[in-house]
Amino acid sequence: MQNKNILISGSNKGIGKEISLGMSLKGANVILLGRNSEGLNNTYDLINEKYNTRPLIIECDLETLNQTQATEINNEIISQYGHLDGLINNASVLGKMSMLSEYDHETWSKVININLTASFLLSKSLLPALSGSTLPRIIFTSSGVAKKGKAFWGAYAVSKAATKSMAEIFKDELETTSNLKIFNFDPGATRTSMRAFAYPAEDPSTLKNPQELQKCYEWFFSKESESTSDHYFTFDSFKKL
Questions:
Q1: Measured between alpha carbons, how far is 135 from 86 in angstroms, rounded to an integer?
Q2: 44 tagged catalytic
Q3: C-alpha–C-alpha distance, residues 30 and 56, integer Å
């Protein structure tokens, strides 16, 4: 991870924050992207206090992200670092737990924009920055509901199923013509605020800590991952590697 430049969306809290700290520990320059300035500044300060790396904050509301803004992010990364080694599309919102027949359009649009459309815009727009890397990676964040729809999971489940399909299309289109590798990763049950909202009666002490995912993300950026033909990984997949 030494000197790799990695953008992590949703790096102000939860999995995104912990992976940002973990990547910085290993020497990566992390681009912290999100809309919560207080959380981003907190992560940035922690990195600056502990590690000798070059973090960067890009404050951005993924719900309203457009093509112009995404292109500007690509240009800023090239200006600051010269190239990008990896994009981790981590930011997601749950929306609400509701029957589709009772799902309001405003929440639907918010969830789809943040979870799906923003990942699409960032992935396509950062390709120029990624082209300068020797081992470029794009990692999409998945969920168990991406493979099979589940009652009451609404727009979140739809967004994750669509993201899985989108990642597969990016993989088919880009991996045969470049050295870019694209992965879809389902971290599984993890101790986060989103998990607590979805399962309020669950004992959080029974869940893994976000830091336990670090080894998975490191593998995606390793030379070892170059030879795999697999695209979809879960946390349990790494027990076999």
A1: 8
A2: no
A3: 7
The per-residue pLDDT for range 131-164, each reduced to its tens digit, is 999 999 999 999 988 999 899 999 999 999 999 9
Q: Which of 122, 33, 129, 85 is nearest to 222 (CA)?
A: 85
Q: Which amino acid is at 174?
A: L
Which of 44, 81, 156, 217 does the annotation list as catalytic? 156
**172-228 tens-digit pLDDT:** 999 999 999 999 999 887 777 777 777 778 788 887 788 899 999 999 999 999 989
Q: Cite the beta strand spans of the chain per DSSP E.
A: 5-9, 29-34, 56-59, 86-89, 137-141, 181-186, 232-234
Which residues, 6+ apart, have CB-to-CB distance to 233 below 8 Å? 183, 184, 185, 186, 216
Q: Encode pLDDT of 37-69 as tens digits.
A: 999 999 999 999 999 999 999 999 999 999 999
